[in-house]
Each structure stands twice: as C-alpha cells, then as structure tokens.
Amino acid sequence: MQFKLERRVEYSKKMLIATPIIAIVLSILVSSVLLAILNKPILLTMHSFFIAPFDNFYSITEIFLKFGPLLLIAQALAVGFRAKVWNIGAEGQMIMGAIAASAVPVYFVDSTSNWLLPAMIVLGALGGIAWASIAAILKTRYNANEILVTLMLSSIALQILYYLLLGPWKDPMGFNFPQTVMFQDEALFPPMFSGVRLNVSIFIPIAFTIGIWLFMEKHFGGFKLVVGGLAPNAATYAGFSAKKAVWSSLLLAGFAAGIAGMSEVAGPIGQLQRSVTSGYGYSAIIVAYLGALNPIGIVFAAFFLSVLQIGGDVALVSADLPISAVHVFQGLLLIFYLSAYAFVNYRFHIVRPTLQPKANLTS
Amino acid sequence: MSTLEFFLAGTLSAATIFLLAALGELVAEKSGVLNLGVEGTMAISAAVGFVVTFETGNHLLGFALAGVSGMLLSLVFAVIAISFLANQVASGLAVGILGLGLSALIGRDYESRTIASTDGISIPYLSEIPLIGPVLFQQNIVVYLTFALALVIGFTLTHTRLGLAIRSTGENPHAAQALGFPVFLIRYCAVAFGGLLSGFAGAYASTIYTPLWADGMIAGRGWIAVALVVFGTWKTGRIAFGAMLFGMVSLGELIAQSMGANIPSQLLSSLPYIVTIVVLALISRDTVRMRLHAPFSLGEVFDGSESR
Amino acid sequence: MASSNTTPLLSLRNITKLYPTVIANDKINLDVMPSSIHAILGENGAGKSTLMKLAYGLIEADEGEIFWQGKPVDLRNTAAARKLGIGMVFQHFSLFETLSVVENISLTMPGSRKALSAKIIELGKRYKLDVNPEASVHSLSVGERQRVEIIRCLLQDLKLLILDEPTSVLPPQHIRSLFDALRTLRDNKVAILYISHKLEEIRELCDTATILRAGKVTGTVNPNEKTAKELATLMIGHDVPSVEARHTQRTGNDPLLTLSSVSFVNHDPFGTSLHNINLSVHSGEIVGIAGVSGNGQQELCRLISGEHIDKQLAANAIEMMGKPVAHLGAAARRQLGFSFVPEERLGRGAVPPMPLAKNALLTAFEHGMLNKGFLKKKAIEQYTEKCIEDFDVRCGGPDATANSLSGGNLQKYIVGRELMLAPKLLFVSQPTWGVDIGAATAIRQRLLDLREAGIAILVVSEELEELFEITDRMHVINSGTLSPSLVTAQLTPNDIGEYMIGNQNASANSAETAHAI
C-alpha cells in the first residue's frame, strides 16, 4: 500500500481553516518533547506560554502592545506574499522607520511642539518606504532577487542603527550606553490607560487592517496583485503591470514597517536603542502565513503570536526557558503550517496494489 | 607571517565557509530546489560542531556530527517543500527560523567559550616559498578539501550521468519523470547533500575559522552563500571566485584597522552586504545569461502529476 | 496484415483509470499484434493519452491487467516498460533544451557519448532520421526533436513504439517521411501504437484501429475497409459536424490591424526573433497564420497582444483601428476594441484557482464592473452568467473555478468573455487546441458568424484543416519570417507545406502574392 497526494478539483475550505489549528497542535506536541529533552517542566511551561499572559490586566495590555506592530507588518507582508513579492526585510524597514522618526526628538530635544508626533509618524513612514524602495528599484530595473536584497538591507540598517547609537546620536548623559536621549512626552503616543505601556498607536494597525481587507477583498487593485501572484502570465495578458505590483507591495510594507518602528520608539521604548525591533519584522512573516495570508486570519495569528511572545517572557522567569525557545516554536509553527497546507489543495490518495499476481519482468 | 600574507591566507580561509555552503546550495538548486534555509542550517551545525568539539576535543567528530545535523535539518526542508509541495521560499524561511532558534538553544551554555584551534598543514618545501607558501600551502586541510570538492562537483555536474540526471531534474521534472528518473529521490538527495555541505561550512566557521561560540555567529554568511550561487551563474568556477571575493571583503574590518584607517567599523561590517547587493544587481541585469544558466524549474512546486 | 503470429505483443484487459472528475479509461481491452501499426483513434478527451501512459508505465491503472507476449506484467514505471522493449514519443517532447542530443540520449542509454553518437548517426541513416548528435536541443526544429525521440527509442531493443499525435507538429511534407520511417520499422518487426484523431492519416497508415469514445472502446476495425464517415461515427457517435460558411465580399475599407516591417530581436536564447513582418487584417475577413510551432508564433502573439512591448519598434509599426499601438499595453489596446484569446487557457487566458466570475474581471473590468476601483459584484456575476448561458459553457456556475472546467468548456468561456467585449478586431491563437469536436465546431462557427458581422479576425493555428475551413487569407510563419499573404481558396496544403519548410520559391501559389494586399 502506497500513499500519494492527489490534487483536489476545488480547494478545501475546511482544511484552510483547520490548517493553522493543526499547526499549533503539532507544534505544541513537538515542543513538549523538546522540553522533556531539555528537562523542563512541560505543564508549567505551557501554562506560562498560554495561560499566564492572561493573568492580569497589565499583562493583557502587554499582549496588545506586541499585537500592534505584528499585525501592522504582517498585513502588509501578506499582500506582497500573495503577489509573490518576497519582502523578508521588514526588520530593516522597521529600523529605518524608527531611525527616521527618532531624528525629530534627537534634533529637537527641547521642543514641546504638538507637531512632534505627527512629524515622527510622517518621517517613520518615509524611512520605511525609502528603505523598501531600494529593493523595489533593484528588482524592477536590475531584476535583482528581492529576497536577498531586502535581507541584506536589513543587515545594513542594523549597522546604521549601531553607528548612530555609538556615534552622533548617543545620549551624552547616557553613561556611554548605545542609546539616544529619552524622548519628551510630546514625542510619545499617549497611553490608553494610566499605568500601562499600551498606547493609542494600537488604532493604526486596526485601521490598517480594515483598509487592507477592503483593498484585497473588494478592490480591483488587490485583485490585480493576487492575479500577478497566482498566474503571472494571466496578469500580463490582462495588462496588469508586474513592476507596479513589486512597487506597491514593497511600498506598502515599507510604510507599515516604518510606522511600526516609529510607534516602538514613540511608545514602549521611548528612545532609540539597539533592540528597537524585537524581531517583529521576522515574526510577522510567520504571522502572515499562519493567518493564511488573509486579512482576517492574520488578526487571529497576530494575537496568537503576541500571546506567545508574552508567554515567552513569562517562561523565561518561571521555567528558566531561553527566549530562543520561542523562535524554535515559531519555526515549528511555520513548518507544520506549510506541511498541513498541502491538504487544502491535495488529498491523500491510496495507491492500491495491482490486482493481478505480480510476474517477474524478466520471466 | 607578514601582514599581506596573513590577509591573503585569511581570505582563503574565510572563502572556505562561503564556498562550502554555496556548493551545497548549487547542487540543490541544480536539481530545481531553492533552499533558503542555509543560514539556519549553518547555524545549527556551527552549534553542534562547536559543542561536540568542545566536549570531546575531537575536531573530526565535531565536523561529522555538524554535517549530520545540517543534513537532518535540510531533510526537514525537503519533507515540506518536496513531499508536502509547499512553497520553497516559505519552507526555506521556516527551516531557517527553526535552525537559528535551535542553534541558540544548543549553544546556550557555551556562549563565548573557545576551543583550541587546529594547525594548518604545512606542505614541505612549497610552504617555504615567500608569499605564496604561507598563503597557499599552510592552510587547514578543510580548505584544500573544499577547493578540491569544487572541482569534483563542477566535473560531476557537467560530465557525468549523475550530473545530467540532476540537471535534467532541475530543468524539467515532468520530462525527467517521463524518462523514468526518480525526481523526488534525486531532489531529496541533492537537498540532503546541500545540507551536509552547509553543515560542514557551519562547523568550519565555529571550530576552525573562529574557534568560539557566539549566538548569531553565522551573521548572514548563509544568505551570502545563496547569493553566491546567483553571482556564479550556477557555475562552480565563478562561485569559487565569488567566495574568495567575499572572503576578502569579510576581512575588510581587520585590514582597515591594521592600516589605521579611520573608517567607522559599522561601514566595514556592512561591506559584505553592500557588495552582495551591488554584485547581485549587476549579474541579474543580464537576463540572457540568467536564463541560460538558471535551472529552469528552480523554485517551482512539482507534484508528480504526469502532465505539464 | 504483416504478421501471422497469433499471440499479441501487448494486451490490455479491462483497464480502468479514474481521475477525480472523470473515468478516463473504462474497462478497456486492446490487443497489439507484432509487426503491425495499430491506431488508437478518438477525439480530445476520449482517454487516448491516458491509455498510452498506462501502457508506458507512466501511470498505474486502478483496475485491470496488462499482458506482454501473453504473460502478465506489472508496468509500475517507465524503466520497467523500456526493459520490455516499449518506447514512447510524446506529443510534448521529453527532451531537455539545455542538453545536446547525445546528452539527452545518454540519460537513458548506457555507453560512452562517442559510441552513442556513432549509433545515432547510423540509425539516422538506416531510417532516414538524420540528426546531429552534438547539436543542442534548443536549436532543433520540432521535427528534428521528434526524430531524436524516435532514435532514443530505437537505441533500445525496441519491440513496441508508442507515438502520441506525431503529425500534429509536422508540415505535410515531413509527414510522408515519418510514415515511411514507421513502415520501415514495422517491416523490421517493431509494432507501433499510433495515437491520433486524424481519420485520413489512420486510414492510410494503420493496419488496425481501436476507437475510443468517452473512455470506452467503441470498436476495433481495419481502417482501410472503413470510410472516414464510418470511423467518425464510431469516434463521436455521429457524423463530423461541419461549419456553415456564407461568403461575403470583403469590404474595401481600411485595415483594423496593420504590422509594418515589424522586427524583433529576441534576447531569450531559447526563443525566436522576428524579421520584417508585414500583416494586415480588414473588417469582415479571417486571416490565418499557419506554421509549425516554435517558429515565432509566440513572439508574434505577444507583440500583437501587447503582452510584450518592444520599445525598439516605432509606435506605428503596429496599428489597430488606425491608431499606433506598438507602445501601448494590453489593457490600452483592449480599450480600442481589440480582443485576444491566447493559446494557453490555464494560467494565461484564465487564473486556474479563481472562480469564473473573477476570471471575467480579468479582461472585462472596463465593462461596468468597477465603481471607483471597487468591485461591483452584481455586474460581474451578471456578465459571467450571460457568458455561461450564451456560449453554452458547462460548469457549476460563476463560482466554479477555472481549473474545474474541461478544456473545451473553458475555451468556450474565454472566447465568450472576449466576444462579449464586442471587439472590432479579434485575435485568436489556437482556437480549438485540445477541444472536443463539438466545442471546436461551435467555436469555428462563431468565428465565421463574426466575420459576417464585419469583425476583423486573425487566427494563429497549427491545424491546417482548420485554417482551410475558416480563413479567407493565410500567411505562413517559418523561422520568424512571415510569408506573403496567400488566398486560401487558391491554396493546397502542400503549398502551405512548402512555406513551412522554408521552400518559398517552389511554391506554386507565389503568383498570388501580388494579388492579395
């Protein structure tokens, strides 16, 4: 008896919804085995990951603090992935957004103007867009692979950040720490509630999600991008520009990542420092996939990964589990998701053994 | 050793890491599979190689287990991308993320530990030739083996039946299957072989080139190896040349310091990435050459159905 | 009959093969005798190719048995089939473009390249299948590639050769020499399984014919003793339907499509360059472009459709409705009243996993489907429903995905979608490729009706019969060069064949060139 994958006539909607759930269950199973190998308490760790983050109000607001940038970037990346524009450098675009936005409070240290924050939003978006544009130009004019270019640009962005933090932008009163001055209140988003770090910038990803949903589901522009991703020859036949698809995908991601970077420095961090991105640019790739590249699915996926991140922090303390365990779990999620996704378009087909007795070929 | 000799020798040594990983990726790509998990594969193997060598003092064992771990991780990739027909780009990223995470877990208790470095092999007489001697004839054995391997792989791909089978699978898996080639098996083997070489590259980086463990020590070299395959337009000779170029660029920081140049270290650290982008753009612009040499089915999902 | 041997070489007994949507083969029985040419006759979708793939071990049957020289065998892969002495030449060749002829052959044959080269030359001489072993496959013509495939089969100890629609890619002159080679093979004790839907060919060449209809055998006959009409009845259940052509006088107005000295340098090393193409199409006429595939049809189609824009061309090198369009994109040309049905339906003419309604949006979006860029669901669905109804598309409604339709129905849908755009100029590439006879006749009739309605139509086709049936004028494309315009009524297939193989001067019809345009 032999198994083969056989293409379904139409894709399975049930499997589409079941896929992320299967991925989560399998990832939990495999990581339990890993925990056992590491000699860590499995139940306690799982509790830390999935239950403890909901223990109190503050912790829940922290989940939403992570949720914002993850959602924002993942929505934009998913648009690109559906158009088969592989921007995996959201991390770098986020850094450049954070840098550009930080220029305002760094150079206007004493300003108390109400224009500080709007200026930072604009600059943050432009920073991300500018960085993504480099990849777009190289892709459309020189045919350079955007996967490698966006990734290399992320590494370069990180070096630019280090240069600024160790050099011209270093806080003169900061005991030589690689960070800028703490920003004035006028350069920060007001918190949602007193005593929490969650701030009003959470509305940006929510509004962005609605916009993306309208664009992808109801607008011709989204349709064109999806056609380009599914069948590039059909897009050319229809007269949809492939270059425009590259540009719009990358600019959208640059915009979203730039804003995400800006809202980190103008939010929970309150200054520019080395760990400005917290790896959101990479985690967002997993969020985008786990959400089936669908604007609504991504909301759930982003929430799940936010819980996971907070849970990782809890487990760090409660079970002495390194933060890299969260990365392992994320990798497993994506691996199982991609594997299980096969059953959306295919199904197992049992190859029956041939009915007659087998004869030797040479006989 | 003079400074010049030191840098030239260092270039060859640094190039070995790039070349090993790029050769592995080349074989996988020639069979039609784009494995973007190289960075993660190198990372996990670097960790395994370091830990084993640290604990046993046996470099050979470290290399062997690093190779095995690289192969295992690339087989995970193969299962997703070849058997479960997932998008190869996403599959590579997934495996890369897993590899990086696992490498940090494995190496957690070994952060900043060092192991004794190995001596190079001094080839009698030849190593005493000024300049050329120390550069070419006092290297670690892995360096010699890697460059020899480049020749072997180049020959195999162009002149042997095995090479033809791999190339035809990469060009048109449907036709290859119609001729009776086990397309899935060939791709599995090519990916596993790529993983083995990436594993050796990781081990070389963590046990010989810089015999110490630091989280994130692969630092994008796996990605540059992927880019090198494009630079070399899927030809071993050009890939070897590119590896040496990057070996030199990655020493930029040391060179600048020794010359006392006042260049921000961040700029020098960025240099390999900047060079990657520039060369990538220059090479890719020549679409004719890309079309001639790139495996035609590279990155495409093949579901084994008999029709095109 | 060439053989008195009574044990069949290959026997299929009750072979059944199921696919998710169809029963491709339903309890098929077939006996191929040694030293015979055995035809499998059936129209597109009848299950011929599936049966042959089963016989070659490329796919496995769900039920049934296969016997080789009277003994049961298990053809689980192509290697097993080849070991028995079965070889197959595919319709879409299984050669690798980047490899040379001898490299391709050494993939399946043992021996040094030198020895193989010598054998290739020797076999080429014996069967008149000349080919240079060192040549790179991408530089070969389609006919030469077919020869390479046949030689590859001959190199093994060949007992049965399977050919899948071998003449569909050949000019008429080369069909002769192929038939000669096949007869020589038969006389050298090789049985041939010959798949085709061309009745005359089978009557001329084959000793036996097994006819398939909708996956079932409807008869096994001696084709020489049957008329084409009788064979057709077995094949499709009734006589071959014919199209009804009323001939109108061509209106003498200005052309709706003009190509003036269009040259195109192809940078793709595997593509064809075009040289000084001149072409015009007027309203109320159908102009055909004949030729063996791979001679520049693809490139010409893309230049005309706007899928490829060559900035080297002057803007007026291509004119539509009197306007220069060479620098306009596909969507802009469509706006002028141009419409195009490409040869690939899935992936170019339609997005495979998208529903038909979304596929309507692909080219008809300017027809009231958008409101400030937002999709008007109602309008899209109405358009799709009308198309399904008017063009008799058998499907599950506007929500059915394009890849769930049969080739014929999807083609009817795409043609319908383009015609509903009410074009002034219609360009159709391979209108009936892989389409069953009923749908093909409907599509051809539709084109003729449109001509009567005054639409200018350009058709690219490999099917000469089709072009003779519907066109007023024809051009032949060969190596990127277009022949002068030829009047169909004054042509024979052989005349076209001369142009196909680049033998223009020998053409009896060349005197007509001055007369047409």
Secondary structure elements and pairings:
The complex is a heterotrimer of chains A (363), B (308) and C (517).
Chain A: E1 2-7, H1 13-37, H2 42-50, H3 57-82, H4 90-107, H5 116-142, H6 146-166, H7 203-218, H8 220-230, H9 232-238, H10 242-265, H11 280-290, H12 295-318, H13 324-345, E2 346-351
Helix pairs in contact in A: 1-13, 2-12, 3-7, 3-8, 3-10, 3-11, 3-12, 4-5, 4-6, 4-10, 4-11, 5-6, 5-10, 7-8, 8-9, 11-12, 11-13
Chain B: H1 3-30, H2 38-56, H3 59-83, H4 88-106, H5 132-136, H6 141-159, H7 161-171, H8 173-178, H9 183-209, H10 221-231, H11 236-250, H12 252-258, H13 265-284, H14 287-293
Helix pairs in contact in B: 1-6, 1-9, 1-10, 1-11, 2-3, 2-4, 2-9, 2-10, 3-4, 3-9, 6-7, 10-11, 10-13
Chain C: E1 10-18, E2 23-32, E3 37-41, H1 48-55, E4 63-68, E5 71-73, H2 78-84, E6 86-89, H3 101-106, H4 113-127, H5 142-155, E7 160-164, H6 172-187, E8 191-196, H7 199-205, E9 208-213, E10 216-221, H8 228-236, E11 257-264, E12 274-281, E13 286-290, H9 297-305, E14 318-320, E15 323-324, H10 330-335, E16 338-341, H11 356-364, E17 370-371, E18 374-375, H12 377-390, H13 407-419, E19 425-429, H14 437-452, E20 456-460, H15 464-470, E21 473-478, E22 481-482, E23 486-487, H16 493-500
Parallel strand pairs in C: 3-8, 3-9, 6-7, 7-8, 13-20, 13-21, 16-19, 19-20
Antiparallel strand pairs in C: 1-2, 1-4, 4-5, 9-10, 11-12, 11-14, 14-15, 17-18, 21-22, 21-23
Helix pairs in contact in C: 4-5, 11-12, 11-13
What can you see in these coordinates?
With 363 residues, chain A is mainly alpha-helical. Chain A contains 13 helices and 2 strands. Chain A has helices at 13-37, 42-50, 57-82, 90-107, 116-142, 146-166, 203-218, 220-230, 232-238, 242-265, 280-290, 295-318, 324-345; strands spanning 2-7, 346-351. Chain A has a two-stranded antiparallel ribbon. In chain A, α1 packs antiparallel against α13 (324-345) and α3 (57-82) crosses α8 (220-230). The longest helix of chain A has 27 residues, at 116-142. Mean pLDDT of chain A is 92; it is low at 353-363. Chain B is mostly helical and 308 residues long. Chain B has a single domain, classed as ABC transporter involved in vitamin B12 uptake, BtuC. Chain B is built from 14 helices and no strands. In chain B, α2 (38-56) runs antiparallel to α3 (59-83). Chain C has 517 residues and is of the alpha/beta class. Chain C has 3 domains: 10-85 and 157-236, Rossmann fold; 257-337 and 423-513, P-loop containing nucleotide triphosphate hydrolases (Rossmann fold, 3-Layer(aba) Sandwich), CATH 3.40.50.300; 354-420, no CATH class. In chain C, the strands form 5 sheets. In chain C, strands 13, 16, 19, 20, 21, 22 and 23 form a 7-stranded mixed sheet that branches. In chain C, α11 packs across α12 (377-390) and α11 (356-364) packs parallel to α13. The longest helix of chain C has 16 residues, at 172-187. At the B-C interface, α7, α8 and α14 of B face α2 of C.
